Amino acid sequence: MTNNLNKTSASSHPALQLVTLNSPEHNVLRTPAKAIKFPLDSETQQFIQDFRIFFNDLKSPLGNPAGLAAPQVGHARRIIIIQVPESAKARRKDVYDVVPPTLLINPSYTPVEAAGENKDWEGCFSVPDKMGEVYRYNEIHYTAYTPEGKEIGGVARGFLARLIQHEIGHLNAELYIDRLRPDCRYDSIENVMRMIKATDSAEKSE
């Protein structure tokens, strides 16, 4: 998932390549990812090292990405990386937690249904040049494992909850475009950014 969903450029790290719907190997995006076994074998450890580097090298006009899943670099493994920088608070109203780059293995979540759902714009490295409105749970309970095999978890709200749901969707062979409902807009990044700026300007003038 891209941070505030602007157009992105792929990393030049040679070990991994970004996979999009336009890539020859796009089938990996529609393949359920395999659970990771502990202790990690040497191949998985090397992948994690390469994956971290690839993620750190990814750029968008607004800075670093918010998240990435292993299938997006051609590996059907249940591994994701997420981050929510302090700067995200200036661009979004639903940022409650600042998260450094964090790798999660075998992540899962349970929705807090009483907290309801919210519709907001999403973009994705694997769906180039597009953005869409997607409903996500406002609050979730999540669990995952660190590379050392330690189980972690907690409650995520707002943007962090949306981010985790988006990335876990990739592990389940889902793209955000699969979740578009009849009342969800879907357009080019350029047009959507114009809509967002117009909405922000209207809100500030009220």
Q: How many distinct helices?
A: 3
Helix content: 10-25%
- Low-confidence runs of at least 5 consecutive residues: 5-12
Strand/helix succession: HEEEEEEEHEH
User: Could you describe the largest sheet, including whether it forms a barrel?
Assistant: 5 strands, antiparallel
Structure in words:
The protein has 206 residues and is of the alpha+beta class. Helices cover 23% and strands 28% of the residues. The chain is built from 3 helices and 8 strands. The strands form 2 sheets. A 5-stranded antiparallel β-sheet has the order 1-2-3-6-7, with helices on both faces. The chain has a 3-stranded antiparallel β-sheet with strand order 4-5-8. A hairpin with a 2-residue loop joins β4 and β5. The longest helix is centred in the C-terminal third of the chain and has 17 residues. The chain starts with 41 loop residues before the first helix and ends with a helix.
How would you summarize this macromolecular structure in one to three sentences?
The protein has 206 residues and is of the alpha+beta class.
Give the SSE layout.
Layout: H1 42-57, E1 67-69, E2 79-84, E3 99-111, E4 117-124, E5 127-137, E6 139-145, E7 151-157, H2 158-171, E8 186-188, H3 189-205
Antiparallel strand pairs: 1-2, 2-3, 3-6, 4-5, 5-8, 6-7
Protein traits:
206 residues, alpha+beta, five-stranded antiparallel β-sheet, three-stranded antiparallel β-sheet
